[in-house]
Design the sequence.
């Protein structure tokens, strides 16, 4: 059975292993081309897969993949307990799809090496389409259908309550970076001191998703909180170039971790009496409000760091005011083309 082990230095993960030569080689390959969170997720997904399948990588079949799929969809809390989001009793469809993607990536790597005894990928991209002559993976039926749900955003009053519940300038600056600048959690934690341009009110995002870098404008409120944090809170003895560091305890002055940021946000959410408030919801809230204020979709794409504008179109649906205005404008045009009915002459 694979055993996930990791070693770290200075708060940074340096090595992840599963105790199998082929799996460990693949994790080294992933580490060179992916962020730490992706690296960890792939390692955990592979651990779960081979724990369920119980076979060596070279002898796994497509039937084993479907058996794994069934096991992941099995009820976790009883047959009658389902999620409101997708009506499923097992793991979320997105989680299962991610795990299949991790396994598919492993076997793509093993096939490409040509020295592992693996000659085909047991994870199909999709089931064959019913249409005669259709190619597998093109127009076929996906193994997992992930629901296309709209993300939740916070109301202005909820954002104010959350900020009021934060205890330090550092914490308010991090939340402002997400809710005013639209930065991801990893991008906030990846900010360095030299990435700030207070005079231009801009940030250089060096640790963007997919390795994409960008320069984004951020509200003056963020820079005011950062200035107060640097002046009165950040340990002067810290040697870290990361902007946000731990303020107290054994790790004082070291870079703040993702778990640390989540803990800060969870505590503030509880104190504010909010049911929901995650880093990603803050990011979604930022772009929804920008779209409602009339910001062009292409500009939001650049601010968000989206590779495709299709990802940005989501905010068209979240910004209800835009949809309502477009509908009313079109409806008025249609109604204007319809001649008023002529009353029937009295007999």
Sequence:
């Amino acid at each position: 059975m694979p055993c996930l082990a990791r070693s770290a230095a200075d708060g940074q993960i340096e090595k992840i292993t599963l105790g199998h030569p082929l799996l460990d080689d693949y994790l080294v390959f992933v580490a060179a081309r992916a962020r730490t969170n992706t690296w960890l997720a792939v390692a955990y997904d592979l651990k779960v897969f081979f724990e369920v399948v119980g076979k060596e990588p070279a002898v796994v079949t497509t039937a084993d993949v479907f058996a794994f799929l069934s096991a992941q969809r099995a009820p976790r809390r009883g047959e009658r307990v389902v999620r409101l989001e997708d009506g499923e009793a097992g793991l979320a469809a997105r989680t299962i799809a991610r795990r299949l993607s991790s396994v598919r990536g492993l076997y793509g790597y093993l096939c490409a090496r040509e020295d592992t005894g693996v000659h085909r990928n047991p994870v199909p991209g999709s089931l064959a389409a019913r249409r005669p002559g259709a190619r597998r993976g093109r127009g076929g039926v996906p193994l997992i259908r992930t629901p296309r749900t709209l993300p939740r955003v916070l109301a202005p009053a909820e954002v104010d309550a959350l900020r009021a519940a934060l205890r330090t300038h550092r914490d308010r600056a991090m939340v402002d970076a997400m809710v005013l600048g639209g930065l991801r959690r990893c991008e906030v934690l990846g900010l360095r001191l030299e990435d700030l341009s207070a005079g231009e009110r801009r940030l250089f995002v060096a640790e963007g998703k997919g390795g994409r870098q960008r320069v984004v404008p951020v509200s003056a409120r963020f820079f005011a909180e950062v200035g107060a944090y640097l002046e009165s809170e950040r340990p002067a003895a810290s040697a870290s170039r990361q902007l946000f560091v731990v303020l107290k305890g054994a790790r004082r002055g070291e870079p703040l971790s993702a778990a640390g940021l989540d803990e800060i946000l969870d505590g503030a959410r509880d104190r504010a009496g909010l049911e929901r408030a995650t880093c990603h919801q803050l990011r979604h809230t930022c772009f929804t409000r920008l779209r409602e204020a009339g910001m062009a979709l292409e500009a939001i794409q650049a601010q968000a760091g989206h590779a495709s504008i299709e990802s940005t179109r989501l905010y068209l649906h979240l910004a209800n005011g835009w949809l309502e205005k477009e509908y009313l404008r079109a409806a008025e045009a249609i109604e204007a083309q319809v001649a008023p009915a002529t009353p029937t002459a009295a007999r």
User: Anything to note?
Assistant: The beta strands are 5-9, 12-17, 126-127, 141-142, 196-197, 202-205, 214-217. Residues 5-127 form one domain.
